[in-house]
Write a structure and sequence with these properties.
Blueprint lengths: L1 E5 L2 E9 L11 E11 L5 E12 L4 E7 L7 E2 L4 E10 L3 E11 L5 E12 L9
Antiparallel strand pairs: 1-2, 2-3, 3-7, 4-5, 4-6, 4-8, 8-9
Length: 130
Amino acid sequence: MYTQTTRSITITVLPTYLDDQSAPDESHYVWKYHVRIENGGPETVQLRNRYWRITDSLGRVQEVRGAGVVGEQPILKPGESYEYTSGTPLQTPSGIMVGSYQMETPAGERFEVDVPAFSLDSPHQPIKLN
């Protein structure tokens, strides 16, 4: 698991390789990632936008921006959490994802919450010994 806290908002990510949805002989590798967002702060926040930077093992970068997550813009009161699962395909057997969520307070203040960088590893990645 990967965890990071920004302004009392804790993001935890657990990526999992999906062997049954991947086709390594066709350079198609798929992961799901489960995200938990916890509001440890004193005020209510709403997740407005997401940003992802996905880099495969050849250094190719894909950027994804959009409203909310999985079609929702959850509101989190102090002490509440929200969880969702999504996924991403790659053309290589490994990669890395990092991102951020834009949160908004009831007063209209918007701020970025970092999503920790997490690795996308499959059993098909050649192991290199140093």
